[in-house]
Amino acid sequence: MTIANTGATGNTDSTDRAERAEQLRNDLADYIKGWGTFRTPRVEAAFRAVPRHLFLPDVPLEVAYGRKPVVTRRAADGTSVSSASSPKLVATMLEQLAVQPGQRVLEIGAATGINAALLAELVGPTGTVVTIELDDDLAASATESLEAAGYPHVEVICGDGALGHPDHAPYDRIIVTAEAWDIAPAWWDQLTVGGRIVVPLRLHGSGLTRAIAFDLHQPDRMVSTSAVVCGFVPMRGTTEHAEHHVRLTDDVVLKVDADDLPDHAALAQALTHPGQEHWTGIQVRHDEPAEHLDLWLLTTTASRFGRLSAGSQARTSGLADPAPRWGGAALYDAGAIAYLATRDINDETLELGVIVHGPDNTKLAAHATDLLTRWDSARPSQPTITANRANSTPRPNTAAAHIIRPHTAITVTW
Ligand SMILES: C[S@@+](CC[C@H](N)C(=O)[O-])C[C@H]1O[C@@H](n2cnc3c(N)ncnc32)[C@H](O)[C@@H]1O
């Protein structure tokens, strides 16, 4: 009797749960659609098909179908090392990737397996999806979830994604779902000419990560078709790259490139000088596509670039209030620091300015405001990013900023 009752209730519960999941899945797809993120019906259909909750069995349905990333593993210091990425970002990157039915796709960073399932929907029954995960237990649970959700044909490999998976190469598409410092040699080798890779590439030691869609034009040359601001957990394993943080006060930190370390004491001293505000009169609407301004500053400045992060105490006390919209973009020299600041003009518009600290800051202040004036006259929206394999001959381009990585020379033009 007890057993029969439990069974009946269990069936009703699981039917209710499946219906609720479907409702939430469609709500999430509607939300992403509302942002205009879906550009092709197939990506939208994939989102309406993949049962995310089966890949996130330990969280409530509302969280599995929520709008935020779901962290599934943290390092001992609390930083996130694995997650189900933000659904809107996943949709954006799948649109960038432009997967076609029947294609061979390699994913780096399986995590829960959700994105691999979406890829399986996009390639259809005649395509191939291989996904690589560094952690063996995550790879095992992604395999189980993919089977349970009806995608047993997705191949999950446990290993270092920087090595790719030569057995099924070449691939028409590669998607990297952890932040990369370089385009690994295996990705160059295993992507077919004419194919596309989407990779969240960290363009500076301080951050500035862009999900870049690159088309492989020649075996040693890729050119971007789009670049989207994003944040990701970093790649671990052989291609790991540490961030370098310089603490200037208890709650003000300058993130810099490890190859370009500042005079710590001089910059900490600079911050003790009251900030001088230089408002430029340059107005930016909140909805304007100006998200690459920080990258523009990095690639045009003659000074050194970093990102200033200030805690609430520093902000409210007026010690440092960098513009969060551009990740605290800052320029610094031997004894002065200048950071991008904003103030509201009205509900729709803000004004750009620079706040400069340090005893001798005139030159840096003039340089920073001049850069903003130059940005304003061009208002470049999307950069073109070219990647040349490091052992190939870089193409000279005087209007380009060069970012050199062990295996790739990257140039950014506007
Ligand atoms: C943000 S999660 C991936 C999100 C996932 N694709 C999804 O469907 O939402 C990043 C994953 O990359 C994995 N990872 C990090 N370094 C890796 C590497 N070198 N090779 C393979 N996987 C790696 C992490 O363990 C983590 O699970």
Structure commentary:
This protein is α+β, with helices and mostly antiparallel strands and 414 residues long. The protein has two domains: 228 residues, Rossmann fold, CATH 3.40.50.150; 135 residues. 30% of the residues lie in helices and 32% in strands. Helix 1 runs antiparallel to helix 2 and helix 2 crosses helix 5. The structure holds S-adenosylmethionine.
Any descriptors?
globular, disordered N terminus, 414 residues, alpha+beta, binds S-adenosylmethionine, ten-stranded mixed sheet, 11 helices, 19 strands, 2 domains, Rossmann fold
Number of domains: 2
Assigned CATH superfamily of the largest domain? Vaccinia Virus protein VP39
Distance between the termini: 73 Å
The biggest beta sheet, please? 10 strands, mixed
Q: What helical percentage do the residues reach?
A: 25-40%
CATH topology-level fold name of the largest domain: Rossmann fold
- Report the average pLDDT across residues: 92
Major beta sheet, strand line-up: 5-4-3-6-7-8-9-17-19-18
**Number of helical regions:** 11
The 3D shape can be described as globular
> Based on DSSP secondary structure assignment, what is the total number of beta strands?
19
Strand content: 25-35%
Low-confidence segments: 1-8
Q: Calculate Rg over CA atoms.
A: 23 Å
Enumerate the distinct ligands: S-adenosylmethionine
Structural class: alpha+beta
Assign the CATH class of the largest domain: Alpha Beta
Tell me the series of helices and strands, N- to C-terminal.
HHHEEHEHEHEEHEEEEEHEHEHEEEHEEE
CATH architecture call of the largest domain: 3-Layer(aba) Sandwich
